[in-house]
Every structure is written in C-alpha cells, then in structure tokens.
Write a structure and sequence with these properties.
Length: about 260
C-alpha cells in the first residue's frame, strides 16, 4: 500500500481502556450538543443521540472543517469521551504553549474515549484512529444506529459525555507549521494537528428518545464537494509541508450549507 496515499493505522484506544460488560439498559433519552470551535477551526457541527434500551441512533452534521489533503478528502475521526469533568478544554489546557490543545492536554476536561463514531462497523475505543471509517472531507453527515456499552451509557447518565471531532486546518490554527506537524501524542506516525480536537460539545439530555431505525452495523457518511476515495496519508505528508516553508497541502474551502 502506498503510504503517501494510504495510511494503515493500528486499532488503538487513544488513552482509553475499553470497559468490559454487557450493554447498559439505563433510562431512554435524547442527548444533543451544538459543537464549539477549538484550535482555530472555523467549522461548525451539531450532534443528536437518541437512546432506547441499549441502542443509540446518532445524527451528526459537520461543515467548514479542513477539506482536502493531496486532492483527497481529509479524514476526521470523532468520539464520545467520558469519565472526567464533562467539559470542553480551553486555551488554558495548552500547557506546553505550542498553540495546539492536544488530546492529552484535554484529558482532564473530557476524559477517555468511550465510543468512536465510525461510519460503519464497530464503535469501540479501539477504532479511535481508524481514519478509513472517519468522516471524509470538510462537510459531511453521519447517521447510524449502534449498541451503547456500559461506559458510554454511564457517561451520558452522569453528565460527563463530551463529543469531539478531530482534525485541524493548518491554514487557521494558531500553531506554527512546526507544531502542527510535530508527532501526534496519540500516534507518532500522524501529525499533532491531524489528531487534535477541532469541534467539541458536552452532550446534554433534552427529551425522550425516538425509536431508532436501522441495524447496529448500518451507517452512512455523505460528503459535499469532494469524493471519499480511500485513505489520506496524513502521517509524514503534512510534515513535508513544514519542510517546504509552511506551504500546506491541506487547503480550506468555503463551508457548504
């Protein structure tokens, strides 16, 4: 596989430990959030999670994020975090002062990953860096139904569930090219900017949930303005941009409505 075009990322849990146990059967309900901007992103997003029994139906709408890398869609992974303060980080979390609030620096605010919102297949923390199953491009949506595990249900019930979308635009982040392309704190094969949070919001319970549709393994992600051809070689490729004097291959286009 050509690493400049495709990047095989091992399944790992971004600082999270998967909790064993049977699916939770807590109170049904709907949780939602309007996602705020982090690390200089100009993107926007909303997420709604309807839970009935051990099944959750998610509707994620994202726009205005970094669009492309090497003329292919930029991959954005997204997760539900839990078990900590249940809030999004601020610039005060940037303890090393490099201009990027990283996942490690954010852990005290939103905790470990409890679910990975993939476009299909498993939604466990082990899929945290599965770029192939992340959102593709700067504007996309994900609607799917998946099984809620005990850790995710607990985070929802106790008000500590936080939703994140990752992947920064080097054209808008306040960080230098050197900082953006430094090895990620999650996987050194990836740039720090590609794995750091761009959008964030606490999931707040709003109302009773609706009956979910579709199977636990069904899901679809649609993109606007770009095709979802394969994987993007973020690891190493973005670093070449720094070597070229800060001319980045990722480019930001106008957000689609």
């Amino acid at each position: 596989m050509n690493k400049m075009r495709f990047l095989a990322v091992p399944a790992l849990a971004i600082g999270a430990v998967a909790l064993a146990g049977t699916p939770a059967m807590a109170a049904d309900g709907t949780w939602s959030s309007t996602l705020g901007q982090l690390n200089g992103t100009t993107g926007t997003g909303t997420v709604t999670l309807d839970v009935v029994g051990d099944q959750a139906t998610i509707d994620l709408q994202v726009s205005g994020l970094a669009e492309t890398f090497m003329d292919a869609p930029y991959p954005h992974v997204q997760h539900i975090h839990g078990g900590s303060a249940g809030v999004c980080p601020t610039t005060a979390n940037d303890t090393n002062g490099d201009g990027i609030i990283s996942v490690t620096e954010s852990a005290t605010s939103y905790g470990d990953i409890v679910s990975t919102i993939t476009t299909s297949g498993p939604t466990t923390p082990a899929e945290a860096l599965n770029l192939q199953l992340g959102g593709q491009g700067g504007t996309y949506s994900i609607q799917r139904t998946f099984t809620v595990d005990a850790a995710t249900q607990q985070a929802l019930d106790n008000g500590t569930a936080v939703f994140n979308v990752h992947g920064l635009d080097p054209a808008t982040t306040p960080a230098t090219a050197e900082a953006f392309n430094a090895p990620s704190d999650l996987d050194p094969a990836l740039p720090l900017g590609a794995t750091s949070p761009a959008l964030c919001g606490t999931l707040v319970k709003t109302q009773m949930g609706a009956v979910p549709s579709g199977g636990a393994d069904t899901g679809v992600a649609t993109t606007s303005g770009s095709s979802s051809i394969g994987m993007i070689a973020l690891g190493g490729g973005l670093a070449l941009a720094a070597a070229a004097g800060g001319v980045y291959a990722v480019r930001r286009t106008s957000a689609k409505a």
